Amino acid sequence: MEVKAISNSGNDTLKNFLSTKINKNSKIDITAANFSIYAFSSLFNQFENSDELRVLLTDSFFKQNETEFLKRYKIAQNNNKMFGNKYEIKLRNKMNTSFIAKELENLIEDKISFHELSDDKDANGTLMVYSGEKDNTVIPSFSSMTSDVLGVTESDSYSYHTAILDDDSYIEKMKENFDDLWNDKNKSSEVTDKVIEKIKTIYQENSPEWIYFVSLYHIFHDKLNELDEDSIAPKNSDFKNSIIWNTLYDFQKDGVMGLIRKLEKYNGAILADSVGLGKTFSALAVIKYFELKRKRVLVLSPKRLRDNWTLYTTPDVRNILRDDYFNYTVLNHTDLGRDSGKSGEINLESFSWSDFDLVVIDESHNFRNNNSGNNGKKSRYQRLMDDVIKSGRETKILMLSATPINNRMNDLKNQISLMTEENTKAFNDYGINDIDNELKKAQTVFNSWMKLDPEEKTTQSFLEKINPGYFKILDMLTIARSRKHIEKYYDTKAIGSFPERLKPITLKSDIDNSGQFPDLQDVYKKIGNLNMSIYQPLQYVIPEKKYLYEELYDTNIDDGKSSFKQVDREMALANLIRANLFKRLESSIYSLGLTIDRMINKIENTLNKISESTNENIRLQTISEFDDENIDEIFSDQLVGNKTQIFIGDIDLNEWSVSLTTDLNILKDLRESTKLVDSDNDAKLSDLKALLREKIEHPINGDNKKVIIFTAFADTAKYLYDHLSIALLENYHIHSALVTGGSGDNKATLYGVNTNDVNDILTNFSPISKGRDKTNNSISEEIDLLIATDTISEGQNLQDADYLINYDIHWNPVRVIQRFGRIDRIGSKNKRIQLVNFWPNVDLDTYLNLEQRVKGRMVMLNISATGEDDILNSNSNKEMNDLKFRKNQLQQLQKDVVDLEEVNGAISITDLTFNDFKSDLQNALNKYESSLNSAPLGMYAVVDSDEFENISNGVILVLKENVNKISDGSLLPYIVIFVGMDGKIRIQHTQPQKVLSLFKKLSLGNEKVNSYAVNRFYDETDGGRDMSNYSSLLSKAVEAVKGVNDEADIESIFHPGGTNIRKNIIQESNDVELISFLVIK
Which domain of life is it from (predicted)? Predict the structure, then answer.
């Protein structure tokens, strides 16, 4: 017996040793756990010249247990080891795997047989070569037939081998054991055909669509469990049997499962589906899931939406979910600012804020600012953070908002901080080293993007610049689907389709029919000349007293690094009121007149107080906290909110009196002008009446006469109700209703309607969508005209109506879209819906110039995370001061009905996630999961570039980074990059959505192999044998990735807390693994 040691280093490799031992007489038996096609390829000539080769596999390549998605994926990857292990990456990266596989298939059919050991049997790995009476060889402890074991590739595992030569008795015994396992059908079974079938999958021609699906399968494999609802809640579980779950559409169910996964994994989630996609019901399903786990739930809602939530916790006949026995607690956002009193039936003085496992925040964008409270009192945000989230139980946060990003990318910072309890390192394990740093970088990109010309300010130009970390944060935390997404990825036949949007009707009404009202430009000018000094008393405090009020009322922000002055608050308020007058003039002369009366009364009372005052200690109150969405409250004597107090003796009364008197005279002059217009000669009201007559007499859907009229102002709403409801009832027997928020102000002409209950009014206006037949049979008639303020512009399904009128246009296009979302909803009974917009009767350029002059900046408080105040900067080039930007938005609203994500110059959160691609994968899994499981790495497809416009030749590479598992990048460890045939990078890996979008464009629906393109590819590569050009492009891609990452690492040195020099950086092609590629010829 001779024993030879093989070191597997240098030329002393097992592969070289076997090359000398195998000849034409050799019979080879291999027992191994697995094999790779690359190992067989390295000894191809020897095996081809041998007599016979038998391979007994001790591990199964072909069994797939039923388990959750992610485990099935991992099992499948193990079963695909024949296409290379981690030590054979550089061989796969040569990109000629298909050619190798095809050669090996021919060899198998000619020489090689495969058996698989039965589950209950075991065998040690060996390799035996029988070449006659001598030169027989046994390699004991032969673990696997792979390149690293043969010494073809390096490995970090022990690879020393011992060869036993010419020991006849030992070899004979080993051969008997092998033959016993091979020949006994109870011990092993033939799998040669299965091996051939599996090998064919790598070399057979693939359609572009299939390679797209395979690529997505790998890129998003760690998200597969989010797509597997049975792993969250099995069939027939209490959750799956709940009423709320079975009420949801399929797209809502998918969203709910995603939200639950995110809440469990990240402690927070944001549901940012577009308007009209039923976020409330999706959130109710999430709540039910946690309630069934005996978790306590708090819902924080804007006051106007409170009834939307409380209804489902009561045994009310209108509660269609009452048998689900919801038990969550509902409080208003404003209750966070209260320490006493009652909210509904809840005593706030004794309420335990820290006792909740899940907090659901409706309209969470209201918490995008973390401003300090005044006078030592916590702000709402601070109260939520300290008393609810950080105290007591570990709390998960679910946020609902169609607009979580407003005009700053940083709007997300404070919302995310609620999930992470202000821990900026909370997502370290997911590749985000510093949340704040990523958000600051995104804001820098956004600021630069906002300065672009309107034609350059596109979503795509933004996506090309945004940092991958921000993209990744959004993709981790949000579920954000658009209307187009739902229409594309779900069966609308099953859930009902969206109604057809008719082209918007645009009406430009005069002020009055008699022509007595002054020219609009003159009125705008007068409004612009108002000092608004009644709302800015701090401007008139004598210099030596100003510091006292600064100490009292200025607010520190960003941990004291900056401050927001009360005098600036007052200035911002003055600009808002000026804008409010401007918008009231657009709305109705009646509304403008009432507001002017209130302002005149306030100024006269103040002037009287000044003239009669002999006591310098009399205190004046001024407003210190206000919301531009509720500006009407400023005119009310019952203003709720914080007020600062100023001693009248600290004010320069002469200067203030002069300014107040100037304003008083202007306002009185304006008031006299408004008195020239009454309901009889109100041209806009006349146009509205004519519009309603046309709608009633010529409905657009059957006999549907339902109309919603929205206005920003309660005064206008009451005016319209007073002048429409009686005439419509008498002439057409049409019932009307008025909803302005406060229960005491709501009205209805339909007997039996509880006007103190907004939901009762809405149920009788939209009985089908609100399920009136299941709850209330006492009223058979319906309300057909609903006049409302924006108190119901969110969170309401009123899709029985098919006609919506904006009697005035909100300055924010989002509000216009939200209003229309009340009737523009999936599953509508109406085939078509109509939007009508009333506009001022001036051309758009004139309107914009006047609007700009009157209201200055509408972005009231734009305070970034860095403490950079940008208050009332008239030279600012931001959103509302960019006239071109504003003009494009308004022109778009006049021409089309748009979705939130389609507003010109707006960035929608739906643009910043991979939801569309995950949905493509979900659809593919439903059809092809078994085939996707067995799909090997290294596959490719070829598309013809001539079939697409402006597509250059090249290759889209899908790679996996192996040296640095967690680093910058929204898809890492996966990399997608588009390289031209000239080696130039067409789309960088830092723009993964753009690469995937191109991949999708070229592939989805492209289900057939393009023989013409494939033949050209074969001509270029000698049938796939010579892939040197393409492997060179792979090297170019790796160089590009390394170069970009080096730049990012160097740049990070200059960001506080952002240093990111990586110990293990990509150095060469071996550091990335080829997953798949698409050739564009």
Answer: Bacteria
